[in-house]
Amino acid sequence: MSDLAYTCVVCGTTLEGPVGRFFHLFGITRSARNPNVCNRCNAHMQEGRIIELSVIFADLTGFTEMTNRLGAERSFQVVDAFFKMANEVLIKNDAFIDKYVGDAVMAIFNAPIQHTRHARQATLAATGIQEGIKSLAKEMKLDLRARIGVASGYARVGRVGSSDRKDYTAIGDVVNLASRLEAFANPGEIMIDRYAFAQLAEDYPDLVPEELNVRGFPEPVRAYRLGETDQTVGKAALEQEVDPLTRRQAFSLGAVLFAIFGAPCASMTILSPLAVAFGLGAFLGMLGPLMGALDSASIRIPLQVFAIIVAAINLYVIWYGNSRRRKSGGDEATRLERRKATFVVGLSIFSLLIVVFETYVHVFVGGKPLF
Hints:
By secondary structure, the chain is an alpha+beta fold. The chain folds into two domains: 201 residues, 2-Layer Sandwich (Alpha-Beta Plaits); 100 residues. The protein is built from twelve helices and eight strands. Strands 1, 2, 3, 4, 5, 6, 7 and 8 form an eight-stranded mixed sheet that branches. Strand 7 and strand 8 form a beta hairpin. The longest helix has 32 residues.
């Protein structure tokens, strides 16, 4: 657990320690797809968007032959160990685990954790997997090798599936290309398309591009082949540039309020009609004898105070989420996020105006004491 981020790297919610356990009461835990992110940080996953990202496909070579030779039980143990190793490497490098298919794993970089040079992050993860498979082979006393494809480009990310179950994934040519490049790689190699390699060129100046006829692509695809020697040479440079995760951050009251009262994550803010409901409840006390009970100080004042607090939290959560987004250099809010934020601001301001108006009428029109 010490290798994981202490706080969500997207929204800053504390995930460990006493505060983290307190948040568990509100259903806030680590995401299953990337434990460095809280499970509610899926703001941009709801509506989806087209973003630039890097995709990695990694699979074991000779899986069919291995299954025939080792049998189902032993093969299952091998694949399970491979996935656990790959999962650990990918999470360490801020990947989002998209899916496991047979003996292959697919992951994406730059969503939801933003990295400007995400292709370098993906390549570092690829070299880590290749190192890990060597250790795994020695441990299991088997000839295990992996092939990996890395590609960068634009894809549509979002939730797809049926009404009963939806999964977050990326769809686009970049995904297909990463899968195809993996098939072109020899055991132990990493194939990288030219767009991803643009972020790596200074670290691998001697690599010569290859023109590949890739199924499904009308034009030849330019790619670069990283052999085992190349991976060792370039890995040090990649590690120096990639910023390590902030494993522990100072306790922040803002993060606490954001985690408890904020909906999923940066700029998906609390939608609390309670502020308006309680504000209107206090206002109704002016409407006549039937609602007179609400006009008593013992009821009216707590209602108004609660309405003010909830409205203030709403507005603060929106500000905090937008501030986190700007500092992290994240994508702009989607239309859905903007509509929700506007709705929350409107509700909160309306609630505050109701409380102010009710207090004005109560004191200056009705001539009654405030308390």
